[in-house]
Amino acid sequence: MTFNTLLLEISSHLSKEQLESLKFLCGDVIRKRDQEKVDTGIKLFQMLMQRAKLGPDNTEYLSRLLTEVQRQDLRDKLQSLDEQQRLHSFNSLSNKLEHAAEVLSENLGHSWRKLGRKLGLTEVKLASISRKYPTDLEETAVELVREWRKTKGEQATVEVLLQALRDCQLNLTADTLNNGGQPDHTLCHI
């Protein structure tokens, strides 16, 4: 379910009295003259969006309002959509980082320690990775990304990884990662 579809559903489940209560509660955000134009939940939600009080990533204000008018069922639907979007975002990031690990395993080679230091991994952690995969550079690169993600959590992004590669002068690997795993053949080496 999309955010707009959910707002339509919430609007259709509001009684006239609940809508009036919501309008009253928005008095600090929506002027009385503008409130008079509101005859549906959708119009109210549009005004809240125009005033940056509501959006796909900004549902706290509406959640609070729905709680105030005793519509926890609608608030729960809104929060459920928030959780689904966060999970989707997390899965998307995880997929990108898994792809990055594959690209690194094919392109990083012996520079993995240098990259690990740039990513903020400790010497102890790097030694542990080295002991775990003493002869397999591809698995070492995958483990490096795995440990980095575990250590940095939400701060472990593809953008941070790309910058660390560039800081290590591993521009070809960064370009390959940035091009979806395909080497950039537009560069000419003279």
Automatic annotation (TrEMBL):
Q: Which PROSITE patterns match?
A: DEATH_DOMAIN, DED
Output the CDD domains linked to this UniProt entry.
Answer: DED_FADD (cd08336)
Gene Ontology CC: CD95 death-inducing signaling complex
User: A GO molecular function for this record?
Assistant: caspase binding
Query: What positions does the domain DED occupy?
Result: 2-80
Name of this protein: Fas (tnfrsf6)-associated via death domain
| Domain called Death: residue spans | 97-181
Q: Which organism is it from?
A: Periophthalmus magnuspinnatus
